[in-house]
Design goal:
Chain lengths: 375, 426
């Protein structure tokens, strides 16, 4: 029994797909599937869903690191076995949800969660900061410009009170992607923390012919900065390779993705950009992209104080100034981006003026503007 | 495997948010390779750069995705992470689990991997983080034989579809997102496991325009619940909100004193189409003017509900900025039936039409949204055999450079310059 390396294809099973979700639904969910009438957040982190059958599903939502151990998952299972009939779920923002079918079961569950140190912070409902969705960073990725889990931990420590309360004008979605590939799809987040490179790739003439298809490396560049070249490798042999017009490079890293002989990561070159004002929901205003407001902050492990302070400042300014129901981007558009920069005290630099494709869409072509300290 | 000193990472054990460092140290008691994860990440914290080599092609026989190869560039220092491949396990729709299933996954990963996971990866999979090449086939064998589960997608495949929790616990979901997600994932197992596309292709399903899985921002094919008829109103509950008997927005703003609820200021004046008003104490909605943004429903969940004629809007071509800039998905099909009885015929037909075209004309590493940009939306609409409607654009074009076709113009494009010159001297 089990895998036989001598006959790898024996008894092979493929294309099973995922397990059917129905067998993982708690009984109260299964019974009331499609029958929910309304919901209410009764306290931060606690949701009550009311069914037309009269049933109630009570959910306690807890924050979690995205990077978690099987020991931690087993502890989650212990809690779910004890309180929730052996079922649990995750949200799309890495939060863990424990569901019970009666109000009386909520407090014992909360008491249990709170007795376990800081492992299960309760919150992430309503006008709060939910957990940060993020990428791998230095714990697993080969192209990052910053870490992910560490930056997220440092930022969430600072934003913790916003996670466990509902005092903001609207929900705030913070996301982190550790390079411009944006596995974390941070391009439509209220506040996006984005790892960026600032040095063009180096070219490893010793390795390039063995590692890369040179035409693919050349076509990987969206700005045509890479061209064919010849160079002498360290053995003194002339080899076919590429050269990079550094002044054309926008540091996207796509060449490195296609060609491992063109690394661009660098301790001084890499760091973090902050983008704000994106949203996905169609509520009130249409979905919006996040906009670049801070072009660069250095990588300062272990706690990235500059990034933490920048995020906190934007959030505090928004919390004070925005109207009820206004997302960060809606607030910035109402007051005007010139006011956003003035109120947050973030210096406006030429790096926030778009010069890439479709850039013209973002230039101001009206006499309507506000006189701020910038003028 | 020896412990490593981790003075920098130890700083991340402080503070109120759960610490992945503390968690890794706990797991190291039974999975000592976690010390080498800590050791290598500590080195990255010191050097301020990653220590993973570029790529690495590994997998299981017969599949072209689901495993992401990873190797340390300092393997002598940290042999426990010399190989550190990722295994993507296809998650169940809506991310519900039984503890029995989760424990089985944990036991599998105790046996074959580092003990560390991501719950979940950005696309939606359960991510098992860190194993060796020799462990891949035995792990896959146990995963399929004992757990009856399968890998998710990676590379130029259909990526693992994902959805919001839909009708299982949300009153707004306009179709059963979990059922559609499960159906499509199973129908397209070949596309998910064996790369045949120009680049990745993602399905995401959200039950309503609140779009909790960010389908509009992240998926090549976004199915977003919508309705066609009138918002359902419970006028008694509207009065309840006005009197302050129910908290606004389901209690989402309860942490701060925003003053007494004001339906005029908080609902009617914020409606983007201005299609609501009060007549006495009765709320009126001019539904044919409504664009279904969900704001009023979000604010008064006990009083307002989406209409009963429900289906989905399909938008195509979202992606993150690499390379030509970020794109939201473009609205192509305003309202389709999401119908399990017909095996989702209306959805499936659209998917396959897009794939047939994109697999032919899409360039290597070109997302379908970029292909549409390259050929233009008019061409894509023709390919999809969709009649153009004003809803396809935010506003009409402001330049006159229309690609007229020869057959559209009287007499066609072929003309005789000599005939022309007889009447018009040069």
């Amino acid at each position: 029994m089990g895998y036989n390396p001598d006959k790898p294809m024996e008894d092979r099973i493929t294309d099973l797909g995922p397990p059917h979700y129905e067998k993982f639904l708690p009984p109260v969910i299964k019974k009331n599937f499609g029958k929910w009438l309304y919901h209410e957040i009764t306290q931060p982190g606690v949701l009550m869903h009311k069914s037309e059958t009269g049933d109630e599903c009570w959910t306690v939502r807890c924050g979690a690191a995205r990077l978690i151990s099987i020991d931690h998952i087993r502890e989650i299972c212990d809690i779910a076995d004890k309180h929730c009939g052996g079922f649990v779920r995750w949200t799309t923002r890495n939060n863990v949800e424990f569901m019970v079918d009666a109000k009386a079961k909520v407090q014992p569950l909360i008491d249990d969660l709170k007795s376990r140190g800081n492992k299960f912070p309760i919150g992430a409902t309503g006008a709060s900061v939910s957990a940060i969705v993020h990428t791998q960073g230095w714990v697993h990725c080969h192209t990052p410009a910053t870490d992910a889990s560490g930056v997220v931990k440092a930022v969430m420590d600072e934003l913790f009170d916003y996670f466990t309360s509902m005092t903001l004008p609207a929900q705030v979605r913070v996301a982190l992607a550790c390079c411009l590939n944006m596995c974390g799809a941070v391009h439509a987040s209220d506040i996006a923390i984005l790892g960026i490179h600032r040095k063009p790739p180096m070219i490893d003439h010793d390795a390039i012919s063995g590692l890369c298809e040179i035409p693919l490396a050349i076509s990987a560049c969206p700005l045509g900065a890479i061209s064919p070249a010849k160079a002498t490798n360290s053995a003194g042999v002339e080899v076919k390779t590429v050269k990079v017009k550094n002044e054309r490079c926008m540091f996207c890293g796509n060449c490195y993705t296609m060609c491992p002989a063109m690394p661009l990561a660098d301790p001084e070159g890499d760091g973090i950009a902050i983008l704000v004002g994106g949203k996905v929901s169609n509520r009130k205003s249409m979905p919006k992209f996040s906009k670049l407001v801070i072009p660069f902050l250095p990588n300062t492990p272990p706690r990235w104080p500059e990034t933490v302070a920048a995020v906190k400042n934007i959030l505090d300014t928004y919390a004070k100034d925005a109207r009820k129901y206004e997302r960060v981007g809606e607030w910035a558009e109402r007051i005007g981006w010139e006011k956003f920069f003035e109120k947050t005290g973030i210096p406006f630099t030429i790096k926030s003026v778009d010069d890439y494709r479709l850039a013209y869409d973002t230039w101001r072509t009206t006499t309507q503007f506000k006189f701020t300290s910038h003028i | 495997m020896p412990k490593h000193d981790t003075p920098l990472l130890d700083e991340l054990e402080k503070g109120p948010w759960p610490s992945f460092v503390t968690d890794l140290k706990r797991q190291a008691a039974t999975k000592p390779e976690c010390w080498d994860i800590l050791g290598q990440v500590e080195l990255s914290y010191k050097d301020r750069i990653t220590h993973w080599k570029h790529g690495g092609i590994v997998g299981v026989f017969g599949y072209g995705g689901g495993i992401v190869g990873r190797y340390s560039d300092v393997p002598k220092q940290f042999p426990g992470v010399a190989h550190f491949h990722t295994v993507r396990v296809n998650q169940p729709s809506g991310l519900y689990y039984s503890t029995e299933n989760l424990r089985a996954i944990c036991n599998l990963w105790q046996k074959y991997g580092s003990g560390m996971t991501n719950m979940h990866g950005s696309t939606g999979d359960m991510v098992l983080l860190g194993t060796t090449t020799p462990n891949l086939e035995p792990l896959f064998y146990d995963l399929t034989h004992e757990l009856k589960q399968d890998l998710g997608g990676s590379g130029s495949n259909l990526r693992t579809p994902s959805c919001c929790l839909g009708k299982s616990r949300c009153e707004w979901s306009c179709f059963d997102t979990q059922a559609l997600c499960h159906f499509l994932t199973n129908k397209y197992q070949d596309e998910l496991h064996r790369p045949a596309f120009p680049y990745k292709f993602k399905f995401k399903m959200s039950g309503c325009p609140n779009d909790c899985v960010a389908a509009l921002a992240r998926s090549d094919f976004a199915v977003i619940g919508n309705w066609k008829d009138d918002i359902r109103i419970d006028q008694a509950a509207v009065k309840g909100y006005i009197k302050g008997e129910f908290p606004s927005n389901g209690g989402a703003h309860a942490g701060r004193d925003w003053g007494k609820f004001d339906i005029q200021k908080e609902v009617i004046d914020l409606c983007p189409t201005g299609c609501m008003w009060m007549e006495g104490d009765t709320l009126k909605i001019d539904n044919k003017e409504c664009t279904r943004c969900m704001h009023c429903i979000n604010v008064m969940p006990r009083a307002l509900r989406p209409g009963k004629e429900q289906g989905a809007t399909i938008c195509v071509g979202a992606k993150a900025p690499i390379l030509d800039g970020a794109q939201f998905a473009t609205m192509i099909f305003p309202f389709v039936n999401v119908d399990a009885e017909s095996e989702y015929e209306e959805v499936v037909e659209k998917i396959e039409k897009i794939w047939d075209w994109w697999m032919e004309v899409g360039k290597n590493r070109e997302r379908v949204g970029e292909t549409i940009q390259r050929v233009g939306l008019p061409t894509f609409l023709k390919v999809m055999e969709v009649e153009p409607i004003p809803q396809h654009v935010r506003e009409p074009r402001s330049n006159p450079y229309v690609f007229w076709q020869s057959e559209e113009v009287e007499g066609g494009f072929e003309r005789d310059i000599r005939e022309f010159r007889k009447r018009h001297a040069q």
